[in-house]
Amino acid sequence: MYNVQELRRVLKSRGACLLAHNYQRPEVQDAADFVGDSLELSLKALESDARIVVFAGVDFMAEQAAILNPDKTVIHPEPLSVCPMAAMLTVDIVREYKEKYPGSPFVVYVNSSASVKALADYVVTSANAVKLVSQLDAEPVLFGPDRHLAEYVAEKTCKEVVPVPDFGHCPVHAVILRGDLVEAKKKYPDAKVLAHPECSSEVRKLADFVGSTSQMIKAAVELGSNEYVIATEIGMLHRLGKLGLRAYPASSYAVCVNMKMITLDSVVESLSSGKGVVKVDPKIAAKAKEAIVRSFELLGVEGPWSKS
Ligand code: 13P
Ligand code: SF4
146 CB under 6 A from ligand 2? Predict the structure, then answer.
């Protein structure tokens, strides 16, 4: 069993950096060079000077890092750590909706496979979906796989947004119910409620702030309350705790078991064995990268693409 210091030593000796999502186990977050949301992690992978990037997150996050960094070795320590929501949007479903709505822009959430991204016009995260869709001229906008994020984007942009498919959802956020928040508000009357847009509209309506995981952390600092109720995965409690903020889960059942599969040992094991190197078919990667870069350009995100 490795501890945080030992893992740091292994990372240093291999010239590797460890990027961890906000939902990772506390000790994995503590060992990481950077902890953040999907958007921040994509950009950190690009900025890092390390030749090896170990990605502590679910598969699509590591895949996106590999697509954006073909010159780096991206390692996903636990291949079974996948996102069930991403699997709800298949290439066949994308093709079916494209045929049904010719000319409509297809926006996919980063929680999707590389093959699906390769068919998309734009790729967004929960941090920038509203901003990107608000800049599109055509309607309706096709958006998948999360129907709740699609609905949130429609509410915020006043545009017609078609969820693709109509059943796409995150099983972790689905366990957070309106009743949980009603109870939490009774128990912690002074607490502000922060929710992820993957929550249902019933839950979002009771929130003081809705945003990506890192936007929720920023909001907690800015709102200046002494207590927060967190309507998202419980890994966030560690990050908020480290900032000295008192936070309670809206539901203690909101655990992404896929995120929790990665451990300090699995990171060391993948570095030593060379297993878990992320490979994406080059043709699919090139098409997916086009959609990601097109989105970054529309959003004004600076990166290597800005120079050309
Ligand atoms: P963020 O991009 O907000 O970190 O969300 C990723 C995710 O998978 C939420 O369930
Ligand atoms: Fe996927 Fe939900 Fe886990 Fe996020 S919390 S990685 S959307 S299953």
Answer: no
CB 162, CB 101: distance < 8 Å:
yes
Cβ atoms 39, 125 nearer than 8 A:
yes
Cβ neighbour number for residue 23 with a 10 Å cutoff? 27
- pLDDT tens for 232-263 read 999 999 999 999 999 999 999 999 999 999 99
Regions of the chain where pLDDT drops below 50:
none
Q: Which of 111, 230, 232 to mutate to test the pocket of ligand 2 (most atoms within 8 A of CB)?
A: 111
Strands 73-75 and 52-56: parallel
List C-alpha distances in Å: 45 to 28, 55, 58. 17, 9, 15
Q: What is the pLDDT of residue 308?
A: 52
- Check: CB of residue 98 under 8 Å from CB of residue 142: yes
Indicate the SS3 state at residue 291.
helix
Domains and CATH numbers, the chain: 4-82+259-277 (3.40.50.10800), 85-169 (3.40.50.10800), 176-249 (3.40.50.10800)
pTM of the predicted model, to two decimals?
0.96
| Residue 23 Cα to ligand 1 middle (Å) | 8
For residue 307, the model assigns a pLDDT of 62
d(CA 6, CA 27): 12
Q: Is the CB of 84 under 6 A from ligand 2?
A: yes
